[in-house]
Design goal:
This protein has helices at 11-27, 39-42, 68-76; strands spanning 2-6, 32-36, 52-55, 58-62. With 78 residues, it is of the alpha+beta class.
């Protein structure tokens, strides 16, 4: 599983990464994390605001902080 956090490295972006890492650990998943800070690479995704979470190239959320339950649901679904 490839998980990308899209964002400049602001507090919300870092918090999203931390929450996602916790959810991955809780589910016992094998995941690779990438924090994408390059604006050109971020703009390649269909998002308008950051932070954003991309799982296996599918955008799960952007512009808001998801709940841990939402994260667990997205990650366990595949």
């Amino acid at each position: 599983m490839l998980i990308k956090i899209l964002g400049s490295g602001c507090a919300k972006c870092n918090r999203l990464e931390q929450l996602t890492r916790e959810a991955v650990a809780e589910l016992g998943l094998d995941a690779t994390f990438e924090h994408v800070k390059d604006m050109d690479k971020i703009m390649a995704y269909p998002i308008m605001t950051t932070p954003a979470l991309v799982v296996d190239e599918a955008v799960k959320v952007s512009g808001r902080m998801p709940s841990k339950d939402e994260l667990l649901g997205w990650l366990s679904a595949g």
